[in-house]
Write a structure and sequence with these properties.
With 158 residues, the protein is of the alpha+beta class. The protein is built from four helices and eight strands; from the N terminus they run αβββββββαβαα. The chain is globular and about 45 Å long. It comes from Aquimarina algiphila.
């Protein structure tokens, strides 16, 4: 059920037409937090992250998850989940995906052969989780694949 809801939310982002109504109220506050030192351990290779105290998610809100892919010249490079298929030099492949409830986020590492996946993909991962108010998500023209655009539009600081 979580998977279907997440897919529906992502599809809604992509297919919803945006209004040119300048009177749209974007005063709703988005929330975000970062989780580091995330290790994916078998056999599930999934991590459950409860929302911290004070983070409130409503039924219609949308949760976005980004993975710190690398740091280039001191700048963080964030990749939105679900990731496209990552093909490894070892011949392996993997993808990260997530689902969420009103209380938590599950982040999953999917691979047909974990033996071909190095620890640089399973250990000490960093994720940034952003809760987007539904009205904002529906009416904005923000590129949700760009964490900097999302943080700027929601006035979130890290």
């Amino acid at each position: 059920m979580k998977k279907i809801f997440t897919l529906l939310c992502i599809t809604t982002f992509m297919l919803t037409s945006c209004s040119n109504d300048d009177d749209t109220d974007f005063d709703t506050i988005g929330q975000s937090f970062e989780v580091d030192n995330v290790d994916f351990i078998g056999p599930e290779f999934a991590v459950n992250i409860p929302f911290p105290a004070g983070v409130e998610v409503f039924d219609a809100d949308v949760v976005l998850v980004y993975r710190l892919e690398e740091v280039v010249n001191g700048n963080d490079v964030w990749e939105p989940l679900p990731t496209p298929l990552i093909i490894l030099d070892s011949g392996g492949e993997l993808t990260y995906r997530f689902n969420f409830t009103l209380n938590d986020v599950d982040i999953l590492l999917d691979t047909p052969d974990i033996g071909l996946v190095g620890t640089n993909f399973t250990d000490n991962q960093v994720f940034r989780i952003v809760i987007v108010p539904s009205r904002f998500a529906q009416d904005s023209k923000i590129d949700f694949s760009d964490i900097n655009a999302v943080q700027s539009a929601l006035k979130l600081d890290f």
